[in-house]
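@channel sequence for tomorrow's demo:
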Amino acid sequence: MWDEAVTAYDFGDSHPMDPVRLALTMELVRAYELDRAVDVVAAKPAGDSTLRLVHREDYVAAVRAASALPRSADQAYGLGTMDDPAFAGMHEAAALIAGQSVGAAEAVWRGQAAHAVNFAGGLHHAMPGSAAGFCIYNDASLAIARLLELGAERVAYLDVDVHHGDGVQAAFWDDPRVLTVSLHEHPRTLFPGTGWPEETGGAGPAEGGAVNVALPAGTGDEGWLRAFHAVVPELLADFRPQVLVTQHGADTHFEDPLAHLAVSLDAQRAVQEACHTLAHEYTEEGRWIALGGGGYAVVDVVPRSWTHLVGIAAHRPVDPESMIPETWRDLVYARTRQPGPRRMTDGRTPRWRDWGAGYDPADRLDQAVLATRRAVYPLRGLLA
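structure tokens (generated this afternoon):
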């Protein structure tokens, strides 16, 4: 899913969410000729009826008003704040990004594609009635809501952004048709301060439908991958989703300026590959919708990470050892006056200890995994 106009989602020069990250990602996709291996399509902006699948009518009206006259932004709706400053055309840009994710969901559900990628999406903090965390409309929630509207009965949402996927969790807290799983830095040390293992979903049949793995600050490749494989495959095997929606925020990376995990590009790629495998293993016909998300090392990390994501979804994975085309590096320098990275790897070989081999109750990472398993697994009839 791509439309050049998504780069109009621009909070200003001093804001960390620089839309150049989207433009550079698409140019790197083109440099590797991945655009020839997939159908590159654009969807229409999400209309009001679609936005209201998740967002309140008064909130959409407030976004429209702030978009037309930014200085009138109503901070009661989270608009005009430091995180979410209002800008002219904000509604149109946010609705376009949402439309790409909804379009991806429609294409996958209808069998027009097995996999779809919208790396401009993954704006997972927006709530039904407010903006939050650089997110105006929650495209991930809207894509899931559209799948449910089309008849899906089981949708799994997996979020590996460094920040908790709070907006998606909130949207489906009471809906047993949606399983939300978020691996993120511990809420004690990072925005939005939610995502504790005890947050397990609403009452009744929705209980156990929210899963949160709160990772200690400083967690690197081995711990991140260990936590992922200790929780995610078992939950998907139990839930058997018809569709898998994943959010791949690149801000887990050790170079990201806004968080405190220490994950490499190579581990991010390993999780992308795992999501692809899990989609083929547990969903109907491999239905997989992959979204972007956070990521504020906009030259060195984001374009490489999401280009790997596109290559994996296209069944044309990019060799991590490959040298990045000079044409792209020249473009990076022209756009940013920064030298671009030279290879599609950080030079790491991701490894992790399998959970089935045992755990260390004194290890902080293992304590985090245990807290999640003990909070959720009994609710789902699984052994913790």
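heads up for whoever presents: The chain has a mean pLDDT of 98.
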